[in-house]
Amino acid sequence: MSPLNPTATPFLPAVTSLPTLSDAALTSTLDLLFEPAPELHELALPSLRTLSFNSYNDLINTLREQLLAIASSIDQDENDAEVARKPLHAILGSHPRLGEPKKETLSKQSANEQGHLLANTEEAEMLKQLNREYEDKFPGLRYVVFVNGRPRTVIMDDMRKRIARGDIREEEREAINAMCDIAIDRATKLLKSSQEAVESST
Questions:
Q1: Which residues in the chain show pLDDT less than 70?
Q2: Residue 89 three-state SS
């Protein structure tokens, strides 16, 4: 989204142009695909500067592999495992809690993705309670899922299963994959809207 025109339709630059862009332009691009997180910027910028990507899916899957490698490298038994997890959890925790728009500022993308989960209903209250239970079970994490139009009941069933499983390493992997699946969906939609805007102007 243009800083000079906040109502402008956000767009992604050509993926082949990324190595030539400024840090500010690269972080803005990342923030369209993922929720804003300085820790993600620090991880991703070197890759965007030095690697060539054929598509945004390629870029996102490269970051997926890097995040999964970081998660796998954390030794559960190490005394400093909690400290080692902080940057990863900061990235995963950048996603807003499902069902709590009044307490947090949602990105435009998250607002669109979660729109049908935000109604003030009994199910929405249950969703908030499950968020609390999840974060009590997995301190430092937030529940991240690719909603993809699924109803609240399906999302809540998934939350309960993941809470009952109680495996923080599996949660980290689930959250990384969900975050990257969301980013791929966002890239697809942004590229499509940009193409439609070009076609409508010709």
A1: 1-9, 76-79, 100-120, 197-202
A2: helix
Question: For the chain, how many residues are written?
Answer: 202
Q: What are all long-range contacts of 142-146, with beta carbons under 8 Å and residues at least 24 apart?
A: 142/92, 142/93, 142/95, 142/96, 142/97, 142/175, 143/97, 143/98, 143/175, 144/92, 144/95, 144/174, 144/175, 144/178, 144/179, 144/182, 145/98, 145/174, 145/178, 146/178, 146/181, 146/182, 146/185
DSSP 110-129: HHHHHGGG-SSSHHHHHHHH
Task: Name the strand (E) or helix (H) holding 188.
Answer: helix 168-201
Task: Supply the pTM of this predicted model.
Answer: 0.83
Of 119, 100, 120, 121, which Cα lies nearest the Cα of 110?
100
Q: What is the pLDDT of residue 3?
A: 44
